[in-house]
Amino acid sequence: MQVTTVWRYPVKSMLGERVTETEVDAGGMRRDRGVALIDGETGRVATAKHPRLWRALLQYRAAVDDDHVVITSPAGWTLDALDAGARLSEELGRVVRVTTERPPGAEVERPDPEDVLAEGVEATVAAPTLQIAQGTTGDTFVDYAPLHLITSATLDEIGVEHVRYRPNLVLQTRPGTPAFVENSWMGRELRIGSVVLRIVLPTPRCSVPTLEHGDLPRSPDAVRTPMRANRVDVPGFGVLPCAGCYAEVVEGGTIRVGDAAELSP
Length: 265
Known about the structure:
Largest sheet: 9 strands, mixed
Number of strands: 19
Number of helices: 5
Order of helices and strands: EEEEEHEEEHEEHEEHEEEHEEEE
CATH class: Mainly Beta
Number of domains: 1
Distance between the termini: 14 Å
Structural class: mainly beta
CATH superfamily: PK beta-barrel domain-like
Strand content: 25-35%
Radius of gyration: 17 Å
Shape: globular
């Protein structure tokens, strides 16, 4: 396989930036999901997993500029992320604070994507809470483990843009590779240059891939296809529609676009 795309998302649930290389260590990718918004009412981490409240976050873009995280609003302003709380609160219609410190036991609200698809993004549906970052020793706001990967075989089967799944790495697979091949990688190691990753969990899909991402329109099939074709028993979480996989970092180093990716037997 080969690494064809590398992404980092400096602010949780905002659009990210494509890079040509990145340093990774046990905590994940440098500057990836190191900043988040905290809901002033609930104290929970803001995420577009709860579309009724936070889908507008997918219209903001976050980037690293001279080692600072900056946010660009669809309204046209650009601010240092840590100075943007008041403007974000005003535009989102909900008081938020911007932080680099993940609260102990940090939680998000995650409605079932089937409920969101059935009732609509504006509907009030049950929103169970989920503790994030359970599979990392780092202090970032990742959903589970330090890195998220998805293959071209899976993307080709679903037929939607890879950015909807917010992966860190997209891997080009050989012709004939079956869709959702990531399911068979659990516990195996993946070597990319000097970096060694261990695949730890299939990636459960929420409603985020179905939402508008910047100029991209909504795409219900982004989750309906995994619902139909790839429901997986995810340890600790239940049987869920999945696409892609999570990985922990065994040996850190640099990952570059074009690197070969070799899976252990």
